[in-house]
Give the backbone structure.
Amino acid sequence: MVQDTLFGTIRVFTEPGLHFKVPFFSNVYTYNQAMTLSFGNQESGEKIKSTRQLGEVEVQFADTYTARIPATFRFRLSADPEKIVAMHREFRSYDNLIDSLLIKNAKNVTVVTATQYTGEEFFQGGLNKFKVQLEDQLQNGLYETERQQVEVEQTDLAAVSSTNDDGDRLERKVQLVWKNIILQDSAGQAKRIANPLDAYGIQVRQVTIGRPLPEKRLDELLVKKKDLVAKRITAIQAQETAPPRRSQNCAAGKRDREGPSHTGRPAQQGTGHYFQAEGSGNGASAGRTGNRPQRERKGRSRAGETEAAGNLGC
């Protein structure tokens, strides 16, 4: 780009080659067509070639947990001379364009998008959705949102009290959390705020997210929850593979109670003797004396067997 200091005219050159300028009365401004902003996205000491190398973006989620998110953004300038001239008149230099527009806008959209998630929701499968929404809002403008209280089911450390002395115990509870809810128009589409990049034709070509770093308290909660889930899975597997011992014991007890009746042999009958009580008249008080003790013994034996079967859960 060449700007004439005498008349203020600006000429834009998007292709390489030899171009004429007036000596002493012309200033040349160079803008790279593509640029990369890296916010701490260096894994395993890998060096990424970028226009700016910055620290991770600090975000705060809807439930007040915080995290640092490494990210890389790649932008491309417009090839329209009119939009390039408008961009130059607004920012005056390439460095000012990056520092005043691209960096601030990328950080702002990242922070605002994080408020639409809770910390637990983000680190338990919400990263991909977060990336999609982040790229969409960078390219097309931020969503219009309204702050509302919503019910969120979360797992947190149980409070230590007189009834709970285990500081590592987890409990699942429903909490009211303030979240930024996306507003929609009559067609069901998300309402948007004007995108500052549209005025200059700047495009977002790529967004990549590195491994997010949660704060210490959130990290401890996620680790404890992962251990709790592993213990539950182990317990369920142990129950599924355990032999059905109760049914075997019940069958054995049933055979013992039935005794010889299954063999087809008749049960022995006791020999009783009848007697006539004195003054009984026509024998109305006649009774059987021989079988009474034997019946009592059988009744007590059957009661004991029933109680044992109940203890086995049959």
Summary: The first helix runs from residue 81 to 91. The chain has a mean pLDDT of 79. The chain has seven helices and 14 strands.
